[in-house]
Amino acid sequence: MENFSFYSPTKFVFGKETESRCGALVKEFGGSKVLIHYGGGSVVRSGLLDRVKKSLSDAGVQFCELGGVTPNPRSGKVYEGIDLCKKENVDFILAVGGGSSIDSAKAIAMGVCYDGNFWDFYSGKERPKKALPVGTVLTIAAAGSEGSGDSVITHENGMLKRGASGECIRPRFSILNPQLTITLPAYQTACGATDIMAHVFERYFTNTTDVQTTDRLCEAVLLSMIEETPKVIKDPSDYQARANIMWAGMVAHNNIVGVGREQDWNSHGIEHELSALYDCAHGAGLAVIMPAWMTYVVDHDVMRFAQMACRVWNCKMDFQNPKKTALEGIAAFRSFLKSIGMPINFSELGAKESDIPYLVKTFGLGETGKTGGFVQLTSKDVENIYRLAL
Ligand code: NZQ
Ligand code: ZN
């Protein structure tokens, strides 16, 4: 295991009707004028937005609002939010929604405290150091942004989807009420489940040895997802299954399952090019890319893939031919994704073979670059993975 420091100070308030506490929580973390930031209308239709406003009013907290965040959130909405916050003297941003609203809120939070263009944090020109405090009321278990120090935004100029990371954007509090996820369409639920599992796999495939504790934590999250996801696809109102998935989504991405080990993250990078170009759901893109990536890199550490196959997918170890076991594990993952309604290849996702050169180019490694923690990939490797996903 490698040395690490782990600091995850978000206060999580979990359970039924907990959104009624958001006003008191904003006050607890020093907010007096809030920007409520939300998406395309699900929180309006469900009545959640009204309940959030009531909670803020009851606590004597002033607010203004900005809705309309799209999935794969865009830079234009971030610029709008920064201007509004400055005009209204906002000192706290409350995201009500999923990863997209939360990531947009984090981008606004950084942008308000920065004299330059907020995109500098996403292009890699600047590291985030200061941001307005952010709180969240989560409505979909997926991205893990409610507990992460990450934000992913797509710039409309060039449709580049890029991430920024920094402790200053980790939410001060996150309200996790599983009841709020009951209105999710099955497809979005499955996209979220895929993303949660992918966050674990990005950490599970590592070159670091002697990481039994985090291996076992990873496997526990994956096994729970395999057990609970089909339950909510069948019965969207299964509260206990929704609750387990919601907590798994947080645990999968606040890095508790990733400390002390090298991590990979190439599947995410390769996927982000798909959701930037086709505006598909991030989880759906991952369902297409991650099994292809696994197949492409399996020879790098056959025994680690065989371990996943046996411990997570209940495959029987073939000691004469561990690669057979490893490939069975990858096939089981793909079958699971199919069973919950995910696309598993380019055509099911609506992606085109003829776009592969463009996708490889915007991935940005050029002729000599390499990236990845488990296996270092070149542009040619990235192209091969897209082709394997056809
Ligand atoms: O916009 P509304 O109307 O709210 O509808 C949303 C949206 O259409 C809908 N939805 C959310 N909660 C709902 C609901 N519909 C009915 N009932 C509810 N309770 O679901 C759709 C998807 O929402 P979105 O916020 O986009 O989902 P998700 O949480 O999957 O976020 C995806 C974004 O997060 C990024 C992804 O790349 C993508 O842009 N990620 C962020 C990460 C982070 N910040 O740490 C890490 C991830 O790996 C990921 O890259
Ligand atoms: Zn993800």
Describe the structure.
This protein has 16 helices and 8 strands. The chain is α/β, with parallel strands linked by helices and 390 residues long. The chain folds into 2 domains: 11-180, Rossmann fold, CATH 3.40.50.1970; 186-388, Up-down Bundle (Dehydroquinate synthase-like, alpha domain). A hairpin with a 4-residue loop joins strand 6 (150-155) and strand 7. The longest helix is centred in the middle third of the chain and has 23 residues, at 212-234. The radius of gyration is 20 Å and the shape is globular. The model has no long low-confidence stretch (mean pLDDT 98). The structure holds 5,6-dihydroxy-NADP and zinc ion. The site of 5,6-dihydroxy-NADP (NZQ) has 33 residues, from helix 2, helix 5, strand 6 and helix 7.
User: If you consult CATH, what is the topology of the largest domain?
Assistant: Dehydroquinate synthase-like, alpha domain
β-strand number: 8
Strand content: 5-15%
* Total separate domains: 2
Radius of gyration: 20 Å
CATH architecture of the largest domain: Up-down Bundle
The largest beta-sheet arranges its strands as 1-8-5-4-2-3
Q: Helical region count?
A: 16
**Biggest sheet character:** 6 strands, parallel
Q: Mean pLDDT score, rounded?
A: 98
CATH superfamily of the largest domain: Dehydroquinate synthase-like - alpha domain
- What is the general shape? globular
SS class: alpha/beta
Any idea of the CATH class of the largest domain?
Mainly Alpha
